[in-house]
Amino acid sequence: MKTLDMRVARRWPAAEGIEAFELLPARDDLALPAYDAGAHITVHLPNGLRRNYSLCGDPSRRDSYRIAVLKDISGRGGSRCMHERVQAGDILKISPPRNDFPLNDTDGHCVLLAGGVGVTPLLAMAYTLQARRVSFELHYFARTRSRAAFLDELSAPTLSEKIRLHCDDENTDPNARPLETVLAGLAPDVRAYACGPSGFLAFLGQAWQRQNRPADHFHFEAFAPQA
Ligand SMILES: Cc1cc2nc3c(=O)[nH]c(=O)nc-3n(C[C@H](O)[C@H](O)[C@H](O)COP(=O)(O)OP(=O)(O)OC[C@H]3O[C@@H](n4cnc5c(N)ncnc54)[C@H](O)[C@@H]3O)c2cc1C
Description:
This protein has helices at 78-84, 119-132, 151-154, 157-160, 178-184, 198-210, and strands at 4-15, 18-25, 40-44, 50-54, 65-70, 91-98, 110-115, 136-142, 163-167, 191-196, 218-222. By secondary structure, the protein is α/β, with parallel strands linked by helices. The chain folds into two domains: 4-98, Beta Barrel (Elongation Factor Tu (Ef-tu), domain 3); 110-222, Nucleotide-binding domain of ferredoxin-NADP reductase (FNR) module (Rossmann fold), CATH 3.40.50.80.
């Protein structure tokens, strides 16, 4: 498969345990392929592994790609390699964007449901929905505020009124079920886009069914480990 050579323009902590990487074409004459919200790239890591990462910037920006990587210490070394070896100035090979999680069903109100680092494709979707003037809300479920990525961007005036952050450690009611409460408050015809850990997605899928919501209004992507 064709690959692109990208230069790591900068890296910075997007949250505790999550590093963001801005990638620019390694050569000035290389035009970056356009992508739509929900797309991911495959990074060819310096240790030989390949890992998929969702593009989490504003898709209307055509000059760079942005990814954010959660360090998974129980994994086989892909995310650890991104955190421990990849530095600003490095050249990384990537496969061009591919989209298995497109935002193509946006009639009416959309709800974006993010669990942890699963916010990455949903952040790109938030930018697209905002640009298309589609009504939406983004609920971001995180263990703590410090582990929630891109809070600076999400709290900027352009997005902040659409964003609700739900942190486990800020929940004072032991009987509260924030995910269920959010779902129960949604209009019957709402469209949902969800991304997060497998347990989060499984819970959402079951709650969606229990509430007799249309199955084709629920779209999700799981960050499944590479075979
Ligand atoms: C479309 C897509 C987009 C993604 N986007 C992002 C993103 O934006 N940010 C991000 O941080 N990650 C993203 N991921 C996940 C990412 O590709 C890597 O899986 C992640 O970085 C972990 O890589 P790793 O090598 O550290 O761990 P891996 O070796 O991939 O393991 C990940 C987890 O799965 C478990 N595991 C490993 N192998 C198996 C197996 N055979 N059976 C069951 N469990 C297993 C491990 O114990 C570990 O907890 C995405 C994945 C996909 C498919």
